[in-house]
């Protein structure tokens, strides 16, 4: 009997030791889950913006009490979920986005970036996750409100966001345009227009649609389909996700997901983002 008791005690201790050991081995697994660090401005509605709650599925911004949401966050959440990552949103200013990818501070940028040749020299891009047409915005009472082409904007004062094709490529195509210094952000260029410091600004259609919700007196000037439209290449209106050239595996994985989505899917997600942006409520 004593031998049996001793054997049982030994057996129980062995099992307990095994379970404890397994617990110690499994505990780090949760903390070591893969994290996808995604950078964006968190201030470029409807692509991305900052809000104070997690309403509509907003994601916490790293090292902040605020949350991020918008089309880019919706896309980031989808990518992270499908690829098995935990998602971390990193808020950076526009000029810091590409350097952050290059340095490895973040894994990718999802921030409404055009896939330009200049950027492709520094980072890799996925296939497009949105296709954005170029438009102008003006105030409804402006003499340019009836413009039907860029020629009708001749001589007007204008600005746009720093480091974008809107400012670098499109505005110079307007005859004799008085191009003022570029603005640091999309909200800043909208303020410049609303305060009538400029006659019009150049942007893309999603940004313009979001803007007229916040500023109902503004008017979208869409010259698409006319012979007097901005001349831009496909790469300049294709919006992509930038990834480090040292991480082709991530680019490939994201492309595999994007291949399952259609233009209608992109447009539907964008309309959803526009409908819940803070200033549309």
TrEMBL record:
<dbReference type="Pfam" id="PF00497">
    <property type="entry name" value="SBP_bac_3"/>
</dbReference>
<dbReference type="InterPro" id="IPR001638">
    <property type="entry name" value="Solute-binding_3/MltF_N"/>
</dbReference>
<keyword id="KW-0732">Signal</keyword>
<protein>
    <submittedName>
        <fullName>ABC-type transporter, periplasmic subunit family 3</fullName>
    </submittedName>
</protein>
<feature type="signal peptide">
    <location>
        <begin position="1"/>
        <end position="21"/>
    </location>
</feature>
<feature type="domain" description="Solute-binding protein family 3/N-terminal">
    <location>
        <begin position="35"/>
        <end position="269"/>
    </location>
</feature>
């Amino acid at each position: 009997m004593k031998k049996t008791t001793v054997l049982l005690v030994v057996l129980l201790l062995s099992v307990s030791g095994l379970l404890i050991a397994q617990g110690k081995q499994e505990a780090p697994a949760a903390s070591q889950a893969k994290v996808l660090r995604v950078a964006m401005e968190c201030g470029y509605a409807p692509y991305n913006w900052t809000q104070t709650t997690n309403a509509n599925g907003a994601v916490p911004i790293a090292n902040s009490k605020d949350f991020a949401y918008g089309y880019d966050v919706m896309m980031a959440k989808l990518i992270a979920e499908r690829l098995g990552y935990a998602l971390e949103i990193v808020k950076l200013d526009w000029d810091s986005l590409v350097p952050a990818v290059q340095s490895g501070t973040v894994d990718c940028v999802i921030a409404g970036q055009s896939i330009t040749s200049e950027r492709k020299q520094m980072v890799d891009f996925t296939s497009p996750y949105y296709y954005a047409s170029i438009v102008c915005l003006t105030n409804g009472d402006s003499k340019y409100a009836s413009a039907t082409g860029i020629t009708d904007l001749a001589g007007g004062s204008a600005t746009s966001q720093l480091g974008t094709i809107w400012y670098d490529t499109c505005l110079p195509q307007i005859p004799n345009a008085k191009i003022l210094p570029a603005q640091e952000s999309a909200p800043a260029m909208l303020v410049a227009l609303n305060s009538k410091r400029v006659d019009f600004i150049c942007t893309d259609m999603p940004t313009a649609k979001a803007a007229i919700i916040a500023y109902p007196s503004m008017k979208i000037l869409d010259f698409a389909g006319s012979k007097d439209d901005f001349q831009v290449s496909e790469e300049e209106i294709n919006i992509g996700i930038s990834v480090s050239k040292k991480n082709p595996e991530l680019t490939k994985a994201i492309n595999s997901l994007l291949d399952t989505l259609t233009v209608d899917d992109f447009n539907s997600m964008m309309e959803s983002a526009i409908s819940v942006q803070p200033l549309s409520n």
